[in-house]
Amino acid sequence: xxxxxxxxLTYVYGEGTPFRKVAVDNVDLEIEKGDFAGIIxxxxxxxxxxxxxxxxxxxxxxxxxxxxxxxxxxxxxxxxPVRFKVGLVFQYPEYQLFEETVAKDIAFGPKNMGLDKxxxxxxxxxxxxMVGLSAKALEKSPFELSGGQRRRAAIAGVMAMEPEVLILDxxxxxxxxxxxxxxxxxIKDYHRQKGNTVLLVSHSMEDIAKNVxxxxxxxxxxxxxxxxxxxxxxxAEELEAMGLAVPQITRVFNRLKxxxxxxxxxxxxxxxxxxxxxxxxGKRV
Length: 285
Ligand SMILES: Nc1ncnc2c1ncn2[C@@H]1O[C@H](COP(=O)(O)OP(=O)(O)OP(=O)(O)O)[C@@H](O)[C@H]1O
Prior knowledge:
It holds the Pfam family ABC_tran. It is found in: Cell membrane. ATP-binding (A) component of a common energy-coupling factor (ECF) ABC-transporter complex. Forms a stable energy-coupling factor (ECF) transporter complex composed of 2 membrane-embedded substrate-binding proteins (S component), 2 ATP-binding proteins (A component) and 2 transmembrane proteins (T component). The protein is an alpha/beta fold. The chain has a single domain, classed as Rossmann fold, CATH 3.40.50.300. The chain contains twelve helices and ten strands. Helix 3 packs across helix 4 and helix 4 (117-131) crosses helix 6 (147-159). The radius of gyration is 20 Å and the shape is globular. It starts with a strand and ends in a 5-residue tail after the last helix. The structure holds adenosine-5'-triphosphate. The site of adenosine-5'-triphosphate has 12 residues, from strand 2 and helix 1. The site of adenosine-5'-triphosphate (ATP) has 12 residues, from strand 2 and helix 1.
């Protein structure tokens, strides 16, 4: 069964005003349990609006959202547990840290869930380890940490709620290349260890290509596709037509194909391209 399902999901900002804007338009979507997916689309294509429906932060203008088969908004009392089930990490979440220590910040969500002290302590420890924060860092004020560490602390705060679905909006934005790799690697490890559903919004095709198994593409408020990474990059021309640059390495190999050198596979990471080439050249890799 799909963990997230939408039926003709539509969301309109400013209904009844001259500024009316359809941000999500008739989206039918099924996200399976355990999927690790990237969400891409040009600026303003509706990515943030879409994900805010998945934990009941936004109410559809029309259409429906189901979490674990349960329709949201039929009974408002059921929204609270959904917010625990679907954890949302906003862009630049480090600006939302406010407690006096990192440990207290991470504990905030589990505390809010009404868990007992021991369980909260276990979760704080486990999620701090997951994001690579030391025991020493936990006792510091969030303001004593570096930007990258603060981001980790904020992500750990949502992980500590042990959501079934973890959604992150641009988790690597504003970080240097090394910081980006570390955060994305950490999210990949989290998915591998927990097997949970993880969705991450990103502007970077390269980041997406390297990390996720599936891609959801939004275009002008509509769902363009939700499919395996390879299959999505196979549609490079359509993606480029909607202003989405496929990874540079994919373009190089597509160019080779156009020149008659078809290696028979879609290439979207440098590592895979290298192995493919070396294999064809008959060398061991
Ligand atoms: N609070 C709001 N009021 C009015 N219009 C809004 C509001 N938030 C978003 N929009 C509009 O809805 C559309 C979709 O916005 P959304 O933020 O969901 O897109 P996005 O794909 O996440 O964009 P970005 O990549 O820039 O974050 C855009 O045209 C945006 O201007």
